[in-house]
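User: quick one, fold this
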Amino acid sequence: MKPVQRVLIVDDDASAREWLAAFMRTRGLVPVSAGSGEEALEELRRAAPDVVTLDLVLPGMDGLATLRAMRALAPTVPVIVLSGVATTQAIVETLRFGAADFLRKPFETEELEIALDKVLARAALDHGGFTRRPASGAFSSAPSPLFAGESHRMRLIDDMIDHVADTDITVLIRGESGTGKEIVARTLWSRSNRARRPFVKVNCAALPHELLESELFGYEKGAFTGAQKRKLGKFEIANGGTIFLDEISEMHPSLQAKLLQVLQDGQFSRLGGESDVAVDARVIAATNRHLESAVREGTFREDLFYRLNVVTIQLPPLRERRDEILVLADHFTDRYAREYGKDPKPLPLEVRTAFAAYDWPGNIRELENLVKRIVVLGSADQVLDELRARTAPVAVPASDSAPCAPPAGELERFLAGESERVSLKRVARQAAQIAEARLIAKVLQRTRWNRKEAASILQISYKALLYKMRDAGLSDSA
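Assistant:
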């Protein structure tokens, strides 16, 4: 029997990704898509593709930088560059950095077929050093960072994943923001018998419910103004595979009813559709909210809750797994040193001490972001200043006019006699940033990391909160 082969499609244009994915399916290939270089590297590790198609124009990390990182991470996985930038210099650079072929956009389908046949015929059988997990046949580039330590609680979760992964049972993953819920979802998928079929993630809080409905279930041509052709929804794209519904608690009640129909009958209707569509997709959901409270408040359907809550995986916050903080920090140090071509220097003792003492309100995601910053900057000074500021005792003012606690960093060094000059403007700005970051962290903890509720309490927009969380190291850059 011919083994199933997987292709990673990297393109910032969603329509181009959809077209390429449809084309790959006609050739019996399983497509996995990424819209940026950073996302492509994550999928390269998780999906272990047999071949990659790569556009040179990408947001963030550009195509050439992505290509170099891919060659370092998986040197035997062939990369076909598809780009409208077809200058001689671009072609030479891509081939010099290890591209297997270069096709100029727009290209004929026959050209792509020839290029695919050529690279797949000589593709290395070891998938670039990715190892097969005997239980499921899925590939993984390295052990998940979530299970890098020796925590008894995490070993129990790992065992539970092994027990339920190869079933089609619905799983609800619960835990604070940043604890690794998506990692658990992807681990469930990678260990299942659906690992060669798509893994599709949908963030239920990222879109208003009208757009989320069309994103999940698709629409027919003419369903609304601007619907010029049929669009497949995420459930159809995930057919045969797994769909991950992140922040499920934020789904609008009208959509909850439609999701319940899918879970009960395996059917739904597209917007503007006259007939039901059958779908076979395993559902994994995640939330950082207390769904029982949402049911009592009437914002979440009780019948949907019981449908989702068949098997629950509760992830502990990082502050309850202190023995794993430094293990995870070393893991991320090695990972990002390789990814960014830096020397894998061990974290200084001062940093390790600060990390071990910190409560990590942003959990693993916050730790990962700070380690990434240390690796990229080649210095831990900035991160240490921030951690000192976040863990410093809070001065309670006697009145509204009393000054706030002095910030760490430039002022601290001046008062210690380590510098002769100090900028009042920078100190004031830093004090404001520290106070803001600490307030946001407190509100997020109080709301169990419900960002919509936190934004309402802080009287700022949801989008503004996400930006401030990112700047404070409380969220990733997405």
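User: anything notable?
Assistant: The chain has three domains: 5-131, 139-316, 321-396+405-471.
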